[in-house]
Amino acid sequence: MVHAEASTFAEGLSKKEVYGQVLEQAKALFEGQRNWVTDVVELGLVSSYRKQSDMLTSLTLQASNLANTASLLWHAFHSLPSPSNSVNWVGFYVLDPKAPQQLILGPFQGQVACQTIALGKGVCGTAAQSKRTQLVDNVDKFPGHIACDGATKSEIVVPVVKDGETVAIIDIDCAELNGFSVEDRVALEELAELLAESCDF
Ligand code: SME
Question: What residues does the GAF domain cover (predicted)?
Answer without folding.
Answer: 90-196
